[in-house]
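Show me any protein, fold above all:
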Amino acid sequence: MKEQPPVSTTYSELRAQLATLTTEAFRPELAEIDRLSTLEIARTMNGEDQSVPAAVARALPAIAAAIDATAERMARGGRLLYLGAGTAGRLGVLDASECPPTFNTDPSQVVGLIAGGPSAMVRAVEGAEDSKGLAAADLDALGTGPDDTVVGISASGRTPYAIGAVEHARSLGALTIGLSCNADSALAAAAEHGIEVVPGPELLTGSTRLKAGTAQKLVLNMISTITMIRLGKTYGNLMVDVRASNEKLRARSRRIVALATGAPDEQIEAALTAAEGEVKNAILIILADVDAATAARRLEESRGHLRAALHATP
């Protein structure tokens, strides 16, 4: 019988560490899930997912504090930078990529970085998540500074790439947020704002693309959306900074102006034409009864906040 090679000390330590994590816990009661019918498995998964919103709710004070700090930095011209590996990294890239069409942000304002680079979005890059140095190099390549916010994302809360990101960002004076799905995580401890959303063990042992991934997506939704609300990217619950880059969004732009103003179609078209398609400006033209140049000036003076521009003294 061929002798097996000895198990390395590093591997043994890592295995013991993973065994302590909630996200890696084994569920004996689900050990025969593969013998259930498809409908029974679907019902089980659906039941498991019910725990996610409750876990996010428990972390709301920490989430709100992190968002207020982020908005303050971004109001000074800073950026929001997400860094993670695997599913966590992909979720950061997804959230960042949806900010330009939704809030008309420049692509450089909200950036998602995944360990191993763009190719890691579809194929794992061996060893990338284990490198703190890689995270530091990625941040340096972006010229990260004191006005930026760096969010390290890791379900386990122990991923070196995410921890390295917040550690290096802090050394550069940037605001740091650590988002994990385990309590007392190294990532949360390394960041100024630790957010720990713990939805419990997964249906498939260690498959953190499930409940942990859903929890991370919900929190990232909050971070980007509420930050943009604080920055004046909305008027009430209307996306007044939407970028009309296709027919659907052009139709949505007209509907947003209509909902905000109640104006007839002819007036809406005239305002959008004068505002060169800028929804926020068109609304101000109609509601404040001003010309396009005045609307643009008022919005600049109010730092893009439509409500403030509407109440500005003529």
Residues 1-7 have pLDDT under 50 and may be disordered. Strands lie at 80-84, 110-114, 149-154, 175-180, 193-196.
